[in-house]
Design brief:
mainly alpha, two-stranded antiparallel ribbon, 7 helices, 4% strand, globular
């Protein structure tokens, strides 16, 4: 399966990543693969050779959700929104651990651009109107969460 379906900016960045960044992303993906394998029955572990939630997938997924919010397009389940916000959190965690070439280079710039587009396609939600359906991640204080947790779509695709 192509991680970059409907995510042209992410594909373009991936196609031009320098070797040092690709190697750092490969190390992240290897750790993620081991985590995903650890959740499977032993007889199935060997069949899984790439992580579902690779770095490429996470970037492309964030680009897709931002595009969906901008377009106000297809119906979208509200529970998916929470999953996408948690996936965006994971991008922050991984990017923070990468070399400067990744954080400050094309992947970091792409993430900043996607985040800016997300902010433009959403409005502040100071009262937490989505919390009954999109709870905050357990064990993390609200003050430490990304801005995406404190915003809601301009046009809610689950209406």
């Amino acid at each position: 399966m192509d991680d970059f379906w409907d995510a042209p900016q992410s594909r373009a960045v991936w196609d031009d990543l320098p070797g040092i960044v690709l190697a750092a992303f490969a190390r992240c993906d290897a750790r993620r693969l081991e985590l995903e394998r650890s959740r499977l029955a032993p007889r199935l572990r060997g069949a899984v050779t790439t992580p579902v939630y690779s770095m490429a997938y996470r970037f492309a997924s964030w680009e897709r959700i931002v595009g969906l919010l901008e377009a106000g397009g297809r119906p979208y389940f509200i529970v998916e929104y929470g999953n996408d916000l948690e996936s965006r959190d994971a991008l922050d965690e991984v990017m923070a651990a990468l070399p400067d070439a990744a954080r400050d280079g094309p992947p970091g710039r792409l993430l900043a651009e996607l985040d800016a587009r997300f902010v433009a396609a959403t409005v502040p939600d100071p009262r937490g109107s989505l919390r009954p359906w999109v709870p905050l991640p357990q064990g993390r204080p609200a003050s430490g969460l990304g801005v995406w947790w404190r915003r809601r779509p301009l046009r809610e695709p689950w209406d």
